[in-house]
Design a protein that fits this description.
α1 crosses α2. The protein is built from three helices and twelve strands. β9 and β10 form a beta hairpin. It is globular. The chain starts with a strand and ends in a 7-residue tail after the last strand. Strands 5-6-7-11-10-9-8 form a seven-stranded antiparallel β-sheet, with helices on both faces. A three-stranded antiparallel β-sheet has the order 3-4-12. Helix content is 17%, strand content 39%. The protein has a single domain (2-16, 51-199), classed as 3-Layer(aba) Sandwich (Protein Transport Mog1p, Chain A).
């Protein structure tokens, strides 16, 4: 049995984030436990185990409400959709990895300086350095907008992320692969997934 927990990392990112400039309630804040979600894929030895897609064929997911398209391995029917509060996730578990797109509306368009702070604080606050190690972390951009790309390693898996706050929406895309299945040749599938991400954004004023 192979278990991927990429979705739980994504939800922790969203739940733990603080949106700069967002309206807050005068009530005393309450501490909430992070929401954890686990996607479990049955192994080949289980009865009636579903056949998993591989990276030989890809299908496009189109989300008109976000003006977004992205490619996932397998057929369109293989894409699983889930909602937890304001967070929507779209994912496919292939024979080797878990590919995930998560979205959340933040309600308002933020200043570029605030966006940078939100992205960095979201990443810093979501992970325990005692159990997870950063492999790399670097700034990136999409259509002139600030983003972040980073990779995490724990005892079982390697997970690579791209995170963008575009206009009033936060997007996190990730690929989680078990360490035993990872080699440098797998990077081409990570890049294929990341580079297929396309979303319409407002024009940036010069």
């Amino acid at each position: 049995m192979v278990t991927f927990r990429a979705s739980s990392l994504l939800i922790v990112l969203f739940v733990g984030m603080s949106i700069v400039g967002a309206q807050t309630s005068p009530k005393k804040p309450t501490k909430t436990k992070p929401i954890r979600a686990t996607v479990t894929v049955m192994g080949s030895g289980d009865v009636d185990a579903p056949k998993l897609p591989d990276e030989s064929n890809w299908s496009e997911l189109s989300l008109a409400e976000h003006g977004l398209t992205i490619l996932f391995p397998g057929k369109s029917d293989d894409i699983k959709v889930n909602s937890v509060g304001p967070v929507e996730t779209y994912s496919v578990t292939s024979t080797k990895a878990s590919y995930t797109l998560a979205t959340r509306s933040v309600g308002s368009v933020l200043d570029p300086n605030d966006i940078q702070s939100v992205l960095d604080e979201t990443i810093d606050n979501a992970f325990d350095p005692a159990s997870t190690k950063f492999l790399f972390r670097r700034p990136i951009s999409y259509e002139g907008r600030i983003g972040r790309e980073f990779a995490l390693l724990d005892k079982e898996r390697r997970t690579e992320f791209r995170i963008f706050l575009l206009d009033s929406k936060l997007f996190i895309i990730s690929v989680a692969v078990n360490q035993k299945d990872y080699d440098q040749g797998f990077d081409k599938w990570v890049q294929k997934f990341f580079e297929s991400f396309a979303v319409k954004v407002q024009m940036v004023e010069a």
